[in-house]
Design a protein that fits this description.
Structural class: alpha+beta
Distance between the termini: 44 Å
Number of strands: 13
Shape: globular
Order of helices and strands: HHHHHHHEHEEEHHHEHHEEEEEEEE
Largest sheet: 5 strands, antiparallel
Number of helices: 13
Low-confidence stretches: none
Radius of gyration: 27 Å
Mean pLDDT: 87
Strand order of the largest sheet: 7-6-5-12-13
């Protein structure tokens, strides 16, 4: 809870709104600490990490959404609930917030849309509260969409489109988003700002989302076949990767060919073994297994990879220290292939394959 308060309150610019929120969400004796910030932050020097200085990708691109394809359980609402049209009573606080939204929209000349994201609940009280919100929206000329009611229209699958009972995964989110895209296109005169430098962040959002889709595709391919996995890497974008081939792997040579040839490593190279670094999909460096020198390469401003040949005598059985990331040894393999795939847009390793 305290961590959530820090993230929410310390990241806000000082304003009348932020001070009001601090006063509402924290105890009075802590107000000065949150407003000044340094009484909270100065004790964290030893804990500071990358995202204390650089915005977290989910906040920058997803506005807080944690995009994922995890499939959890959920259920459609019962017909009894969906057919319940009785409206409950909005609390004074809820009505005040809704009225303030309407007032702000009128002052700033923008349109409001109310919607209920798809999620599971099983009580009439919740249903009637949303019916009260619908009634408020209709009385104020505001479009209102309940995606539990629209589930069939948007082909929402409760077996595959939810991360848990109350949150869509990326599959479900795409369907909800597509609905709004069609609605906006049909009902609003919106200008296309793709490629407009004033809206560059939205173009970057799309590239980031494509990167997440690519990561998901890699995970699926890894569970399918080594050939498909290699072809997915080779066809990818914003990918750098490290490949090591060590020891005695003759019995796997047919499968190794399926894995390495799509990546541009030919038969003469993989028969002799070695280490390869690809930067943004292009071959950057090759180290053969007789080299006595190490090689260091910066994947970006935060991550450095180092490769070197290590004798089995210097390592624990089947565990090598021939690849290090920021000085930390990775669990490489002997008598086989090790691949680490780094996404230069996400700034993290998104897939590894240790095969022996």
């Amino acid at each position: 809870m305290l961590g959530n308060l820090y993230r929410a309150l310390l990241s806000m610019d000082i304003s009348a709104n932020s001070i009001e929120l601090i006063q509402k969400e924290t105890e009075e004796e802590s107000w000065t600490d949150y407003i000044l910030r340094w009484p909270v932050i100065h004790t964290r020097y030893k804990e500071l990490g990358r995202y204390d200085f650089e915005q977290y990708d989910y906040s920058l691109f997803g506005r807080g959404e944690a995009v994922g394809w995890t499939v959890g359980w959920s259920y459609p609402l019962s017909s009894e609930l969906l057919n319940n049209t009785e409206a409950g009573i909005l609390s004074d606080a809820n009505r005040e917030w809704l009225e303030s939204l309407v007032e702000l929209a009128q002052e700033e000349n923008f349109e409001l849309i109310f919607f209920v994201a798809p999620f599971y609940y099983d009580d009439a009280e919740t249903r009637e509260l949303y019916n009260a919100a619908r009634e408020f929206a209709e009385n104020n000329g505001i479009p209102y969409f309940d995606f539990n009611e629209l589930a069939e229209e948007i082909s929402l699958d409760y077996n595959t489109d939810f991360a848990d009972s109350t949150h869509c995964n990326a599959n479900g989110a795409e369907k909800v988003t597509a609905f709004f895209g069609e609605y906006f296109a049909e009902n609003m005169d919106l200008e296309d700002h793709r490629g407009d430098e004033r809206y560059y962040l939205w173009d970057e959002d799309l590239e980031y989302y494509k990167s997440l889709v690519q990561e998901q595709a890699l995970a699926a391919a890894l569970n399918s076949s080594v050939r498909e996995y290699a072809e997915t890497i080779a066809a990818g974008s914003n990918l750098s990767y490290v490949i090591t081939l060590n020891g005695n792997y003759v019995e796997y040579i047919g499968d190794i060919a399926q894995l390495l040839e799509p990546l541009g490593i030919n038969v003469y190279e993989y028969l002799n073994g070695g280490k390869w670094i690809y930067a943004d999909g292009e071959l950057h460096f090759i180290m053969d297994n007789s080299s006595v020198d190490s090689y260091t390469y910066d994947l970006d401003d935060f991550v450095t990879v180092r490769i070197e040949n290590v004798s089995l005598m210097d390592s624990e059985a089947s565990v090598f220290e021939d690849v290090k990331v920021n000085g930390e040894a990775q669990t490489s393999v002997y008598d086989g292939v090790y691949i680490m795939v780094y996404d230069t847009l996400q700034h993290e390793f998104i897939s590894t394959l240790a095969w022996n």
